[in-house]
Amino acid sequence: MRAVGMVVEFNPFHNGHRYYVRQAKAQTEADVAVAVMSGNFTQRGEPTILDKWARTRAALANGVDLVVELPVFYACQPAHRFAAGALRLLNELGVSAVAFGAEHPQWDFAQLVRATADLDQATLKRYTATYATQFNDQLAQRTGVSLQAPNDILAFAYTKAARAHNYQFDLQPIQRVASDYHDQVIKGAIASASAIRQAVQDGEDYRQAVPVATDHELAGISQVPSWGQLYPMLRNQLIQAPVDQLCQTYQMAEGLEYRMKEFAERSLDFAHFIHGIKTKRYTYAHLIRLCLYATLQMREEELGDQVRHPYLHILGFTPQGQAYLHQVKKTVGVPMFTKVSQEMKDGLCRLDYRAGKLYQAFTPVEQDLKHAPVIRR
Amino acid sequence: MRAVGMVVEFNPFHNGHRYYVRQAKAQTEADVAVAVMSGNFTQRGEPTILDKWARTRAALANGVDLVVELPVFYACQPAHRFAAGALRLLNELGVSAVAFGAEHPQWDFAQLVRATADLDQATLKRYTATYATQFNDQLAQRTGVSLQAPNDILAFAYTKAARAHNYQFDLQPIQRVASDYHDQVIKGAIASASAIRQAVQDGEDYRQAVPVATDHELAGISQVPSWGQLYPMLRNQLIQAPVDQLCQTYQMAEGLEYRMKEFAERSLDFAHFIHGIKTKRYTYAHLIRLCLYATLQMREEELGDQVRHPYLHILGFTPQGQAYLHQVKKTVGVPMFTKVSQEMKDGLCRLDYRAGKLYQAFTPVEQDLKHAPVIRR
C-alpha cells in the first residue's frame, strides 16, 4: 500500500479539506491518506474550535484513513519547526509522498530554499522588524519571489525540511482553491476555516461549507474556544510567578517577561493584553504562542527534551488506515501507541497531556489519559 | 484620645458588627474604634463578598473610625498566627484596649492559655486527627473547657499572643449576641455573616440584617465571590507546575503536592477537588488556605520574609480616626501609608498586591496600586 501524508489542523474540517484529501490521493496514486494533525492548539497558539477527537471523527468520515497527533511541542511553533516536526513523523510512517496546499504550487520551492540557505535568525538582526519580514526582504531581492501567503510559507518550510533530512518521499504541492485564507465570509461550498469559525461565533449558517460530520460536531459546542477564556490562567501565572521563573519559559527573551507581567497586571481582558505587549519585533502569532508556553509553564529545557523524543499518538483510523499501520509498524523507529497510559501522561506525552488539561476550559472530555482511538468501520 | 482596637473581617459588615463596635467603645471608654480588617481574603482563605474598599466604606459609616488592612500573610492563617499578626499591628497603633467577641466571655482565657502552654504542633503528632482536635482533647482533659466556638478560639489566641509579647493594652471580651455563627437563616435584625452571604447568593432579602451602607455596597455586586470562580487558576497552577516547584509552596507538606496535582487533573470543579483532597489530618480551612497559597505561588521563604516586615496600610478614616493617626504617627515603628506606590507593589506589599490581582476575578477595581484611602467627613 502507498500512503500520502498531509500536515493539517482541520480547524474545523471543511469542504476545501475534503477536496484536498481527494486530490492528494489522486495526484500521488496513494491507497491511504495519512494526516498528521495538530492536537488542541493551532500553529498560532490558539485553541482549536473542536477538540482533536471531534476533528479526527470528521476527517475519518471524509477520506482520511489515519490521523496521528502532531504533538504540541511541534504544532505550536513557527513554520520551519512546525514543518520539520511534522515531516519527521510522516517519514517515520513511511509515506510515499507528502501533499500540501500552496497558493503558488508552480513555484520551484527547492530553488527558493537554495537561494536563502545562508539566512538564519542570527544573520537577520534588525530589531525593528520581525524575522519573517527581514527574511522576505532578502528572498525578494535574490529571487523576485515574495513569500507572503501562509500555505506558500509552509510549502517552503516542507521543502526545506525534506531537503535537510534527505527524505525520500515525493513532495506534491496542490493548488489551493477558491476562498482566500483571510476571507471572512462564506460565499459557497468552499470557505476558509476562519470564515467558518467566525460564522459559528456569530451564530450564522456555515453548513454549506462543511461536510455533515463537521456540522454534527459543531452542533455540540456551546462556545467557540478562544484566548479570552484562557486569559485568567495566563494572567495569574504572569502575575504570581517571579520574573526569574518567567524568564525560564520557552522563547521568553529580551525582557518580554517584564513586559508581559506589566501588561497582565494592567489588563483585565486578553485583547487589551495582547495589543499592549505587541511590538514591531514580534508577530502576534509569536506572542500568542508565547502566551501558550507561559500558561503551560513550558520551560526551555523541557521543550528541548520533548523535541528529542518524538512519538506517534494514533488518534484514529479506518480499516484501510489500520491495514497500513499493520504494514509499517515494524519499520517505525519511534514509540507508536493508541492510548496514553498513566506513565506516559507524566512522561513521554506530558506536554500534550498538560495542553489537554488546559483545553478542558472548553470541554469536560478527558483529552488523553486512556482515551480510546476513533475507529471508523 | 483613647482607642479600642478590633480584629475584623466584616464579611459583610452587619448589624451585629455595629452593635459590637458600640459595645467596644462603651465598655473600654474609647474615643475611637480602630479596626484591623482582613483584605480581600478571609481567615479560611475564601474571597470576601465585597472588596476591602466597600467593606471599609460600610464600617466607617457605622461607628468605626479607622480601618487598617490586615495583610494577607497574617489574614489567611490559622487562629494563632492570625491573632498574633493582628495584635502586633494594633500594638503599633497604640490602642488602649482590644475588644473581641466571644461565645463565652466569662471564661478565664489567661488561665486556659497557661494550662496549655506546653502544647504545640510538635507535641501533637497523631496523623489521624487535625491539630485543633488534638489540642482540644488535651485542653478539655486539663481544664474541663471545650474550645469549640470560633470566637472563643480567637479569644484564646488573642490572649495567648498578648501575654507572649507582654502587650500593655487591656483585653475586653464582648458577649456575642443572638445568632449562631453557623446559623444559615436570617430571623431578625441580627444574623450571621454567613447567613447574609447565603441570602445574597440565593437572591433573598437580607436588608433587615445589615445597615444601609452595606445594602448599598451589596447592590453593586453581580456574583458572590467563591473559589468556584478562582478554581481555573488554581487548577492550572497545580497541573502545569512541576511537583518540585509546588512543594516549595508555603505549608505544602507531606506529599500534599502530589495529592493536589492528582485531584486537580481529575476535577473540573472546586467542590469535587476540595472533597477529593480532604483527609482526617487537615481541616477544610487549612486546605482552602493552601489553595490560596498555591494560586498566589506563595513560597515558604517569601512568606517568612513578609511576616518579618509588617506595615500599616490605612484603608480609610473618619475625622476622629484622622486625629488619632496624627496623635500616634510618631510612635508607630513600622511603615504606615495611605497609598501603595509602584515600588511598594513589587516590594513591601507584593503579596497583598498579588492577592488583589487575583481578586480582580470579581471586580475590575484596582485593589492597591495608587488606590486612595476612603475618607469619611
Automatic annotation (TrEMBL), chains A, B:
It catalyses: cytidine(34) in elongator tRNA(Met) + acetate + ATP = N(4)-acetylcytidine(34) in elongator tRNA(Met) + AMP + diphosphate. The keyword RNA-binding applies. Its EC number is 6.3.4.-. ATP binds at residues 7-20, 101, 151, 176. The keyword tRNA processing applies. It comes from the Bacteria. Its main location: cytoplasm. It is an enzyme of class 6 (ligase). Pfam families: HIGH_NTase1. It is found in: Cytoplasm. Coiled coil: none annotated. Keywords: ATP-binding, Cytoplasm, Ligase, Nucleotide-binding, RNA-binding, tRNA processing, tRNA-binding. Belongs to the TmcAL family. Catalyzes the formation of N(4)-acetylcytidine (ac(4)C) at the wobble position of elongator tRNA(Met), using acetate and ATP as substrates. First activates an acetate ion to form acetyladenylate (Ac-AMP) and then transfers the acetyl group to tRNA to form ac(4)C34. This is tRNA(Met) cytidine acetate ligase.
